[in-house]
Amino acid sequence: MKKLDLAKLNKTYKDLDGKSVTVAGWARSVRDVKNFGFIDLNDGTSFKGAQIVFEVGIINNYDTIAKLNAGSSIKVEGTVVVTPEAKQPYEIKATNIEIICATDSSYPLQKKGHSLEFLREQAYLRPRTNLFNAIFRVRSEAAYALHSYFNSLGFVYVHAPLLTSSDCEGAGELFKVSTQDIYAGKKLKPEDELFGKKVYLSPSCQLEGEAFALAMGNIYTFGPSFRAENSNTVKHVNEFWHIEPEMAFAELEDDMDVMEGMVKSVINYLFDKCSDELKFFDSFVEHGLIDKLKHVATSDFARVSYTDAIAELEKHNSEFEYKVSWGSDIQTEHEKFLTEKIYKRPVFVYNYPKEIKAFYMKLNEDGKTVKATDLLVPGIGELCGASEREENYDVLLNRIHELGLNEEDYWWYLNLRKFGSVKHSGFGMGFDRFIMYVTGASNIRDVLPFPRTPKNCNF
User: Pairing relation of β-strands 381-389 and 369-377?
Assistant: First the structure.
């Protein structure tokens, strides 16, 4: 079908004033005002749709078109009319409207104003709404911006495996992958599995990323990760997208520099490419979103040690549900307090106690802390987690034993510390949480096309 995309029409409508065009898409709404009517048409190529005007005497099937339900797909031939005095900059006066597929009364999105909970139950249709059309358009642009940022720095994009035999984080909340009938009631042995051992969906590509960084310098992985925790919070899902850069010859400070540059670069890109969507979010999702993002994009991120951050937070313990002390993890309420009350900008908190961090993080000389940092941002708390990786074979092996991990699962990872080991660092950012941040969405289920959460895998 030859048609003009609305994305192109929205940019060139002034040049097409008075000219005939053919467009096609889905009717968001149809209004009949006696002798003429209006269709809000969107074809998916742009957040902004087009207003179609159809009149009695011009459109042969006027009565049928006037009764169309929302969601119906149509093809429209008509004339572009520039309307500088109206709310929309132009409209299309239809000369012919062809119905491609008409919806009936069972179409779930007949009316506007559906709750987010209802729309999650209609995940296969919700991209047709303004909110989700905008969210997923921003998600696409942000992914492209991330690739562009790392490509501009000379990073190599690595496709890491989704299947793994090791638990990177050591938390044990993994999905087991099996070719056996796990419901048959018989006891399964690892050697009977396809790979001859227990295999899981990967919770992180960091370990594989380190192997490539120690060969290619700077690399990043970007893809889905899986956690099997039975969690129903607004920030957790069982399948999420993860960007994980690794850098050879890099220390923790280098890690922080790349993270700060990444966040600012992507936000600035979205201001350039998704201004309409951001204005929509600012008006209908989170008032002040644009100012928040501008503040982040123009601020120098604060850098404070865990010890100093705890000292500041302890002064306000009476205000917290969870009291803090040295050695305790920093909760979301503490993260927001640091970013919104104390520093009033994004904050890197670094040098955490080793007991609350993963085995692969480099020990500091004090023997109590590791060279790790979390990037905290106003409004959401933790956005990225990072560390300088332990490059010493003996120290890493001791940490594996300390945490009760199986040394055999990490034989190749340990070997990296024997075969040309160097200082190296990396970080991980939950891409979905970043999309929450830049759109104002308060629930991670609303920034994933088809969210996977406990008891929810319907689409």
Answer: antiparallel
Please give the structure tokens belonging to residue 77: 């031939």
Please answer whether residues 325 and 281 qualify as being in contact, where contact means their C-beta atoms are separated by less than 8 angstroms.
no
Spell out, as residue ranges, where the chain has pLDDT lower than 70.
Answer: 1, 168-172
pLDDT of residue 36: 94
With contact defined as beta carbons under 8 Å apart, do 288 and 282 qualify? Answer: yes
Structure tokens at 342: 């104390």
Within 269-330, strands assigned E span 302-305
The pLDDT assigned to 186 comes to 76
The 8-class DSSP code of residue 43 comes to: -
How confident is the model at residue 169, as a pLDDT?
Answer: 62
What's the distance, CA 295 to chain centroid?
20
Query: d(Cα 52, Cα 41) in Å, to the nearest integer?
Result: 7
pLDDT tens profile 349-383:
999 999 999 999 999 999 999 999 999 998 888 99
Cα(440)–Cα(284) distance, rounded to whole angstroms? 9
Q: Among 73, 42, 39, which Cα is nearest to 59's?
A: 39
Mark 134-156 as b/e (b = at least 16 C-beta within 10 Å).
bbbbbbebbbebbeebbeeeebe
**pLDDT at position 179:** 87
DSSP β-ladder status, 50-55 and 90-101: parallel
- For 186-218, the pLDDT digits (tens) are 777 888 888 888 899 999 999 999 999 999 999
Tell the residue number behind the tokens 């119905």, with chain if given.
99
Residue 187: its pLDDT value, please? 79
147 φ/ψ angles, rounded to the nearest 5 degrees:
-60, -45
* Element housing 143 (H / E): helix 130-152
Contact 37, 65 (CB under 8 A): yes
155 and 216 in contact (C-beta within 8 Å)? no
